[in-house]
Each structure stands twice: as structure tokens, then as C-alpha cells.
Design a protein that fits this description.
alpha/beta, Rossmann fold, single chain, 283 residues
Length: 283
């Protein structure tokens, strides 16, 4: 019962019977529904959003777009809502000429199942296999992006891939933590969360194994995941990637946790633009 109570507080999905490409309110042909099947036979639904100015009328045309040489972002969301609430953020990527795959986790959006740390990790592996094996995107053209708890998902996946010598092109995380335990203990110092927390997301233990380029972005005014926890994670990451690109931490002075696109969009966009440019030069 304890784990059910904890997870009801950690995971706050918005569930809907169906989410359609038109819900993104983007031009026709820019957003396409995609589906990936997990090892435990769940269907994860999501979107493939083409870079701004690109359109496709079919799955086959989308595949041709994926061979055009653009970078692809695998977007791992935070703990609340679903994919159609992320439109302002993934539009920053598409405006910079990048395609995006955004899948809802199990139990989110129009997906069945229930979330947990291990299940979200399995969902992330499913999305990676879908991108690289089914859609044939080269690993070094893929950027893992995670916001908040999705940063924990992305860091773990990046570490697993780097250890397996199938490194992604880069890891980009926003407003994430050293561990969920650290963040929870900060908010509930009177509770024994370090002993009792079931889903722990120990990113600080995984990030030393990440050998791809790393960018971290964090708002100084974040009170949900205070910036010190992002800085702690950054300090544990390798200084330089295996390709010689130094890690980078970008602090957004006026931003909190959920208002980055409202108060710091220009700085956020520029940090991502610089990171993508450095990756493109590496290719």
C-alpha cells in the first residue's frame, strides 16, 4: 500500500480517451501519431513532430523525412499532464530545425498501464528501440531530452546506452535533480523519505557513465527542484564527452520550474541552439 500511496503523489497523469495530431494546433502534416510496443505488450502512443516548414502526408513520407539528416529529439516529459501540454516546449526544438518524438509514458495521455520508476525506464528503452530499429535513425543523430522527472528517465537511458557502446548524440536535461530522494527530502524533512521512498531516480549514480555531450538547464527560482540539486548532478557528470565536448550548465536567472517558456524563452532557445550547433559540428 505504501508504494501505491507514494506513486499517487509522484505521478500526476492527465488521461484522455484519445489524443489526436490536431490537438497540437500545428499545421496539417507536421504532426503524426506514432505507436511503439513495450516488451510487456503495452502500446505507447505519441507524436512525431516534423521540423518547422516540413510536412508529410504518410508514414512513408515521415520515414523519408527522418533520413534527411536532421537531428531527432526523444522527449521525456515530467510527472504531470500529457504530451499535448508540452507543445510550447517541443516547438522550440522544431523551430530550430529538429524533429521530435514525444511518447506519453504508460498511464499517461491515451496509454494504458500505470507508471513507476522501472516502468518508465522500460518505456524509455522502448522509445529508443522504436527510433533506432523500427525507424532506422542513427543513434548519433538522436538527442535525449528530459524535463523534471523526465530528466531522471533520460539520464538513466543515456547511461545504459553509453555503457552498451550505443551512445546517443547528446543528453539535454532541464529542471531535473541529483535524485528524487534528494528533492523529496528537501520538501519533507520531517519524513524518513531516504529510507522509505520506493521510486528513487538516482541520476547522480547514473550520470558518471554518460559519455555523450551533456547540457543542463535550470531556473534559479525553481522551488520544486531547487537549482542546487541540478548543480549536484552536473558536478557528478564527466567533464568532457568521449568526443571532446565539454559539459555545460545554463542557469536561467528569472525562471522557476514550470514557467521557462514564459519568462526565459529566448535564453532557453539560445542554449539549445548552441548545443545543437556544437553537435552538428561534431558530425
Amino acid at each position: 500500500m505504501l508504494h501505491l500511496l507514494q506513486r499517487s503523489l509522484i505521478y500526476l497523469p492527465t488521461c484522455e480517451a484519445q489524443i489526436e495530431p490536431r490537438d497540437a494546433e500545428l499545421p496539417p502534416g507536421q504532426v503524426h501519431t506514432v505507436m511503439a510496443r513495450t516488451n510487456d505488450r503495452l502500446e505507447l502512443r505519441g507524436w512525431h513532430i516534423l521540423a518547422d516548414g516540413r510536412r508529410a502526408a504518410s508514414h512513408e513520407e515521415c520515414d523519408r523525412e527522418l533520413t534527411a539528416g536532421r537531428l531527432l529529439v526523444l522527449y521525456f516529459s515530467g510527472n504531470a499532464a500529457n504530451r499535448r501540454y508540452r507543445v510550447p516546449e517541443f516547438r522550440i526544438f522544431t523551430s530550430l530545425g529538429v524533429d521530435v518524438f514525444i511518447f506519453d509514458y504508460r498511464g499517461y495521455g491515451d496509454n494504458l498501464g500505470s507508471p513507476s520508476e522501472e516502468r518508465l525506464a522500460a518505456d524509455a528503452r522502448t522509445v529508443w528501440r522504436y527510433a533506432t530499429e523500427e525507424r532506422k535513425v542513427a543513434p548519433d543523430r538522436i538527442i535525449l531530452y528530459g524535463e523534471s522527472i523526465g530528466g531522471g528517465v533520460a539520464v538513466r537511458l543515456a547511461a545504459e546506452l553509453c555503457e552498451a557502446d550505443t551512445s546517443p548524440g547528446g543528453l539535454l536535461v532541464r529542471s531535473t535533480f541529483s535524485s528524487l530522494v534528494d528533492a523529496a527530502a528537501h520538501h519533507y524533512p520531517w519524513l524518513p523519505v531516504r529510507l522509505a521512498l520506493v521510486d528513487r531516480y538516482p541520476s547522480i549514480e547514473h550520470v558518471p557513465q554518460v559519455t555523450c555531450p551533456i547540457l543542463q538547464i535550470h531556473g534559479r527560482r525553481d522551488v520544486i527542484i531547487p537549482i542546487k540539486f541540478g548543480q549536484r548532478l552536473f558536478e557528478a557528470a564527466p567533464q568532457v564527452s568521449s568526443s571532446g565536448i565539454e559539459k555545460k550548465f545554463v542557469e536561467l536567472p528569472e525562471a522557476g520550474h514550470n514557467d521557462v517558456n514564459l519568462v526565459a524563452e529566448a535564453e532557453f532557445r539560445e542554449a539549445i541552439r548552441d548545443f545543437l550547433s556544437r553537435l552538428d559540428q561534431e558530425q
